[in-house]
């Protein structure tokens, strides 16, 4: 029998080699055809008496990238069709059986009676790593780039092909839960220490090592299928077990606020499965997996954090007619925290960097930021001293603007002040070449107005990074009124080189991310002004799914910056008689009191909405109560309503951004909201939050809030029209037909 995705050959020693090499794909992925072919191989090798054992490896640089997530869309459609024709009970039964096919295949390998070895020549994640865990022996090639993981939790799922049960039988449950709930990638040495793989060998010896293990009489039984097997952490109902699961449940609640059904399912499946024989445990896992597959949270997270994210990273918004630009050297104006971070990620990607500031000493200080980051990488064995020296050699720190003359791209990252930015733009434009693209790293100042200071506005574009640059994955590309396609293509090519995710938006005050997150900060300010206890505001922010409360976030971005932005907004819009509408008097009074009267600028000067003692954790400033004209009784406050206000105001502003043409792609609105400012990931992003609730329900919610809290909650015309026609954003503004692979 011939196979499309696999080569199957049995050697003279009776050991079969299965090489997975999907045609037309850069990585092997699990789909229906792969499942059918591998099932046939298992049955063929099991029935053939000449086969003593089987090795499965990959013909690509990686082993397997996981499952084709379009399978979920197919399953969902099939469920809906079957439910309509035969009823929901029949649909549920079919969905359950279809969703557990890979799990049954993995268990068949594990119990077929012949030893299987996973020879991992590269990265194996998701269902691919679950396949390896089902093999009786796992050997990995020495490779610094190889990563092993069960990352399903990051897209609202959990390992549903035996991953939860095998991991929890390989290592103590506390370690297993951490591995499953974090979904982090680990290298082969760490995996070996965790007993997830059995051996690490030189790449050239990989298949030999696998053959030798089978030839030496490797067991065809997994440890948990051997009589007398004992769980590494002891029984669930034991002293050791109670010391794990009770505090683990508390930690789960503290970290997730029960917003993530997949995380809850992991806790349940491990707890219940460890009390059962393996086959029953796998069936329990499959039951939970089928349930989570159909959850709205999984659907939203998969769409945004996998499908849309992948499409954006592959260049969904790049002008197709513009040839790809090869970048070799970039310039960075401003060696402060942002500029230094931009220089670091650029040099890390292999680009030569000119880092300029007002004097050589300040420029060198910016370069020292890269030195410190690389020192930490060396300390953690994630880089070598040679890597550090090579990166630092690519950064030229100077005060001489002449050094910019042969740069392909120049990014100014100076202080958020129009006059300062215009000054450095003017100095740079006299030096840069006629083909160089100029980018401004501004978070609020309109790009079109900044472009007025540049000689060729078609080559001027906004490139908005987030802090800290080396850790934040999003870059917001802003198109000015006269920005050309060549500049857009160059900016997107640059973002791809530095391995970050771009979203493209049109010019507007605050653009998209700063504009939307500003509403989150404002709502926190107004809640405080209304008398809501500060601690409740912060806790509810996290309960709603945000990474931190609005007051803590304002401290991070700087309270005095929020005050400056508010004043600039009022001044710029005042001429249009919009200043009083754009600025809330209560927010203005609060920020003015904090900054001008009390000198509380945020974390940067150790005092903002929080106090930051030198020794000990931050704590809310007790003086906040003195800034509240009235104080509400916390027992009378509706927690659900507070959460809806904090999320709803951001979603509402995102809808306005789409209506105004600031954001032109719903995928970018969702991806940008999660990666840019941490909008509750379980919702799928700001626009998915609206669609998930339904536009009618969302409009009703906002209308009610508008009556109680003011016109900032008034639904826009687009929302009203969507609600009237029972339409959604993803239907009306559907991206191009797409296909995704994970």
Descriptive report:
With 742 residues, the chain is of the alpha/beta class. The protein has three domains: 289 residues, 2-enoyl-CoA Hydratase, Chain A, domain 1 (Alpha-Beta Complex); 178 residues, NAD(P)-binding Rossmann-like Domain (Rossmann fold); 216 residues, N-(1-d-carboxylethyl)-l-norvaline Dehydrogenase, domain 2. It is 50% helix and 11% strand. The chain has 31 helices and 18 strands. The strands form four sheets. An eight-stranded mixed sheet has the order 11-10-9-12-13-14-15-16, sandwiched between helices. A six-stranded mixed sheet has the order 1-2-3-4-6-8, with helices on both faces. Strands 5-7 form a two-stranded parallel sheet. Strand 13, helix 18 and strand 14 form a beta-alpha-beta unit. The C terminus is likely disordered.
Question: Roughly how many Å is the radius of gyration?
Answer: 28 Å
Fill in the CATH topology of the largest domain: 2-enoyl-CoA Hydratase, Chain A, domain 1
Outline = globular
Question: How would you state the average pLDDT, rounded?
Answer: 94
Distinct helical segment count: 31
Helix coverage percent: 40-55%
- Class per helix and strand makeup: alpha/beta
Total tally of structural domains: 3
Strand segment count: 18
Largest sheet: 8 strands, mixed
Instruction: State the CATH architecture of the largest domain.
Output: Alpha-Beta Complex
Spell out the CATH superfamily of the largest domain: 2-enoyl-CoA Hydratase, Chain A, domain 1
Low-confidence stretches: 737-742
């Amino acid at each position: 029998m011939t196979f499309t995705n696999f080569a199957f050959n049995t050697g003279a020693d009776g050991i079969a080699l299965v090489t997975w090499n999907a045609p037309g794909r850069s990585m092997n992925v699990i789909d229906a055809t792969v499942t059918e072919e591998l099932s046939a191989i298992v049955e063929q090798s099991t029935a053939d008496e000449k086969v003593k054992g089987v090795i499965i490896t990959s013909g690509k640089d990686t082993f397997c990238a996981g499952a084709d997530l379009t399978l979920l869309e197919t399953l969902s459609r099939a469920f809906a069709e079957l439910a309509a024709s035969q009823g929901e009970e029949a649909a549920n039964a079919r969905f359950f059986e279809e969703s557990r096919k890979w799990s049954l295949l993995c268990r068949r390998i594990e119990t077929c009676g012949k030893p299987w070895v996973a020879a991992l020549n590269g990265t194996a994640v998701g269902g691919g790593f679950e396949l390896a865990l089902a093999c009786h022996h796992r050997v990995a090639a020495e490779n610094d780039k190889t990563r092993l993981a069960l990352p399903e939790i990051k897209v609202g799922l959990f390992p549903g092909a035996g991953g939860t049960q095998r991991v929890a039988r390989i290592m103590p449950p506390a370690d297993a839960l951490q591995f499953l709930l974090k979904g982090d990638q680990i290298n082969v040495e760490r995996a070996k220490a965790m007993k997830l793989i059995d051996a690490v060998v030189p790449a050239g010896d990989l298949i030999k090592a696998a053959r030798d293990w089978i030839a030496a009489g490797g067991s065809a039984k997994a440890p948990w299928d051997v009589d007398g097997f004992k769980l590494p952490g002891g029984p669930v109902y034991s002293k050791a077990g109670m010391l794990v699961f009770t505090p683990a449940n508390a930690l789960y609640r503290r970290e997730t606020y029960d917003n993530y059904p997949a995380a809850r399912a992991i806790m349940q499946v491990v707890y219940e499965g460890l009390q059962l024989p393996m086959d029953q445990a796998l069936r329990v896992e499959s039951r939970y997996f089928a349930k989570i597959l159909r959850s709205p949270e999984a659907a939203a997270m998969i769409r945004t954090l996998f499908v849309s994210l992948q499409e954006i990273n592959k260049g969904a918004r790049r002008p197709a007619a513009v040839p790809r630009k090869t970048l070799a050297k970039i310039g960075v104006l401003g060696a402060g925290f942002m500029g230094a971070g931009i220089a670091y990620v650029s040099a890390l990607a292999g680009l030569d960097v000119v880092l300029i500031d007002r004097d050589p000493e300040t420029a060198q200080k910016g370069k020292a930021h890269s030195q410190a980051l690389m020192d930490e990488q060396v300390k953690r064995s994630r880089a070598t001293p040679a890597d550090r020296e090579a990166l630092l050699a690519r950064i030229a720190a100077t005060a001489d603007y002449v050094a910019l003359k042969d740069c392909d791209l120049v990014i100014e990252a100076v202080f958020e002040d129009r006059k300062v930015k215009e000054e450095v733009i003017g100095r740079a434009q006299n030096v840069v070449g006629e083909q160089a693209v100029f980018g401004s790293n501004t978070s609020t100042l309109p790009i079109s107005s900044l472009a007025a200071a540049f000689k060729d506005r078609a080559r001027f574009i906004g490139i908005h990074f987030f802090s800290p640059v080396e850790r934040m994955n999003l870059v917001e590309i802003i198109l000015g009124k006269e920005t050309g396609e060549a500049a857009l293509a160059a900016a997107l090519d640059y973002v791809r080189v530095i391995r970050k995710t771009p979203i493209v938006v049109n010019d507007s005050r605050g653009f998209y991310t700063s504009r939307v997150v500003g509403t989150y900060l404002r709502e926190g300010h107004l809640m405080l002004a209304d008398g809501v206890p500060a601690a409740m505001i912060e806790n509810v922010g996290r309960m709603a799914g945000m990474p931190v409360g609005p007051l803590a976030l304002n401290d991070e971005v700087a309270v005095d910056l929020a005050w400056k932005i508010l004043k600039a907004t009022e001044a710029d819009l005042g001429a249009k008689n919009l200043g009083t509408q754009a600025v809330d008097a209560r927010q203005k009074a609060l920020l003015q009191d904090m900054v001008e009267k009390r000198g509380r600028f945020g974390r940067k000067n150790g005092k903002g909405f929080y106090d930051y003692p030198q020794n000990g954790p931050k704590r809310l400033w007790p003086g906040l109560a003195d800034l509240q004209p009235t104080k509400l009784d916390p027992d009378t406050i509706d927690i659900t309503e507070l959460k809806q206000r904090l999320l709803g105001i951001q979603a509402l502003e995102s809808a306005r951004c789409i209506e105004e043409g600031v954001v032109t792609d719903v995928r970018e609105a969702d991806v940008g909201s999660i990666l840019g400012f941490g909008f509750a990931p379980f919702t799928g992003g700001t626009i998915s939050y609206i669609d998930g609730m339904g536009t009618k329900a969302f409009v009703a919610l906002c209308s009610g809030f508008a009556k109680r809290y003011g016109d900032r909650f008034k639904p826009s015309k687009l929302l009203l029209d969507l609600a009237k026609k029972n339409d959604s954003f993803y239907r009306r503004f559907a991206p191009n037909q797409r296909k995704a692979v994970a």
